[in-house]
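Run log // design_07
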């Protein structure tokens, strides 16, 4: 009857529709490396524990290595009849080495096998993401160092608020990314637990050595509870949550840069190689890369919601619903890594228009707080100083002047506390650069 690896108790072939509906091979084939690595470690453990002969373990391992090569060379036959990557590898092993292949699945279920593959995958992806965050931080640090002299308006409510340096603005993102890195490192702890040996959910009566398998695969811990081992997807959710928070940061950075590249702001110009054109308007230069980063944040948030929703009502332990964790997980990793790859280059090639930033500071009243703080230093309560400077701003608006245009006489009309040294404040861009808190 059925050629299925689980076909023993079945008297009918699986319906074609069911085969297609349940298959995950189209997307879980990318776990082949983790699956084969896990199987090789499992075979070694079985031999060491005396559960299978050493020569047979060696035969299994040799076959698995050949299968890995076949997949890498694109010579491996994938079919939805074999459901998933685990079944594919095992069936192919049978074709290669015969019935000995049947010993590989001793003391193992696809439930702990798929959990193991995912743990290995998430661990690798965390390392990759952290490496890419590092590269982005390096570019931000370099740009911040080069732009300590670039004074620009800092914004609240998207209204010019107080002058800051471009360096300080960029460093805000640097520190967000530093927290992201810490968050991913914490997530690594959740992924660094080895589930193999839990089998379907209840472990095995065979004398396996889980510590040894864990050691071979580089895990620092093993699950203490077999039901938890096959039911847990916290580490997937943690990876996607960290990614979602990271995407909030990348999206905000993208939004700032999109605004800055408009003619209204005109603080930066994206390099031609990192912008796109319009099919109808010949003059257009669009920040599509940045818009896509902002947009892709949405799909990562959606992925988080998907996995949370898949998991929330599941009775312990494994349920097939959990197969639905893979696409959101893979998509998250691809999306985040894609964004992290393109941003450093976009940032380091963009043109920064320091003069325009400076002009924007000068055209605004963003130096007003300095005048209020001046009066505070002369002994005036801050609320009173706020009121005085507010009146000065209103006066300047009527007279079409800047605060720094006022004469000492005009200053004194607002408060007797103003002295000769108030005129120094007109050189406030220098002060911004020298401000201690950066
Ligand atoms: N493809 C399945 C998944 O991704 C593998 C585990 C299947 N286990 C089972 N008992 N049917 O979750």
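design_07 sequence
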């Amino acid at each position: 009857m059925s050629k299925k690896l689980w076909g023993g108790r079945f008297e009918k072939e699986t319906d074609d529709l069911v085969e297609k509906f349940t298959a995950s091979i189209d997307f879980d084939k990318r776990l082949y490396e983790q699956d084969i690595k896990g199987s090789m470690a499992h075979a070694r453990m079985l031999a060491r524990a005396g559960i299978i002969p050493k020569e047979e373990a060696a035969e299994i391992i040799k076959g698995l290595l050949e299968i890995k090569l076949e997949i890498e060379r694109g010579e491996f036959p994938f079919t939805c009849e074999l459901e998933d990557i685990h079944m594919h590898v095992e069936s192919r092993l049978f074709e290669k080495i015969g019935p000995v292949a049947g010993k590989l699945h001793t003391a193992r279920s696809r439930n702990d096998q798929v959990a193991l593959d995912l743990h290995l995958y998430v661990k690798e992806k965390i390392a990759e993401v952290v490496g890419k965050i590092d590269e982005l931080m390096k570019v931000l640090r370099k740009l911040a160092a080069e732009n300590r002299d670039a004074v620009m308006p800092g914004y609240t409510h998207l209204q010019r608020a107080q002058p800051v340096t471009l360096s300080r603005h960029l460093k805000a993102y640097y520190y967000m990314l530093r927290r992201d890195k810490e968050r991913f490192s914490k997530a690594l702890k959740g992924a660094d637990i080895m589930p193999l040996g839990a089998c379907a959910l209840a472990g095995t009566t065979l004398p396996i050595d889980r510590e040894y398998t864990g050691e071979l695969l580089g895990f620092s811990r093993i699950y203490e509870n077999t039901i938890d081992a096959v039911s847990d997807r916290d580490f997937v959710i943690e990876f996607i949550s960290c990614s979602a928070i990271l995407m909030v940061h990348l999206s905000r950075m993208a939004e700032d840069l999109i605004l800055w590249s408009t003619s209204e702001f005109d603080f930066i110009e994206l390099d031609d190689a990192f912008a796109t054109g319009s099919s109808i308007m010949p003059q257009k230069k669009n920040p599509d890369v940045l818009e896509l980063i902002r947009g892709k944040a949405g799909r990562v948030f959606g992925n988080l919601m998907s996995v949370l929703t898949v998991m929330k009502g599941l009775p312990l332990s494994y349920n097939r619903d959990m197969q639905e964790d893979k696409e959101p997980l893979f998509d998250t990793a691809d999306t985040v890594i894609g964004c992290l790859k393109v941003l450093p280059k976009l940032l380091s090639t963009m043109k920064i228009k320091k003069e325009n930033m400076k002009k924007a500071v000068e055209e605004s009243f963003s130096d007003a707080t300095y005048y209020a703080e001046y009066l505070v230093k002369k002994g005036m309560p801050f609320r009173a100083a706020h009121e005085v400077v507010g009146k000065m701003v209103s006066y300047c608006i009527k007279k079409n002047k800047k605060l720094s245009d006022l004469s000492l006489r005009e200053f004194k009309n607002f408060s007797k506390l103003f002295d000769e040294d108030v005129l120094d404040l007109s050189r406030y861009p220098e002060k911004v650069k020298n401000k201690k808190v950066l």
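Strands lie at 151-156, 159-165, 193-194, 221-222, 268-269, 351-352.
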